[in-house]
Amino acid sequence: MTEDAKKPPTAGKRVALGVSGGIAAYKAAEVLRGLQQAGCTVRVAMTMRACEFIKPLTFRALTGQHVVVDDYAIDNPDPIAHITFSQTVDLFVIAPATADIIAKFANGIADDFLSSTYLASTAPVLIAPAMNTAMWQHPATVRNVDQLRMDGVHIIEPDAGEMACGTFGPGRLSDPQRIVQAALDI
Predict the structure, then answer these.
(1) Per-residue pLDDT tens for 81-92?
(2) Where are the domains of the chain?
(3) How much is the pTM?
């Protein structure tokens, strides 16, 4: 058996993992590890709000790479980091995707690194929503998710269960292994 035959079919796949700011942000580390175990190289981009739930250092420790939060930061040597970042990936996975980031993507708003990178990317996109049931079922969110589907974005439906606020219903981040498998299937 050749060395190439031993490698998983996803070996070398370059994945951008976008992490937006919700309580499920900590589960993004598990998604990252699953992608790495499948042979993917993963780079991470976070919203500022995501940094309030999980630190960039966690992802840097797991990837060995710089985690991008703000491409307009004074110390960023690349003034067009969102373009550079978007052109070096084969797949863009957003987990968790909050109602806010979904709305930005659906409406072409590019006011932070993650949303700017989304608009600059030509790679396939997988979004794993995570939010309160009322937010998930709100007509604006339904409309935004429908728009993303029309734009060719892959959506992995959230799970139903207990929310962080104690209510029950759909909106929980899908199981990290299910997200990984969906990413590998694209």
Answers:
(1) 777 888 889 999
(2) 3-185
(3) 0.90
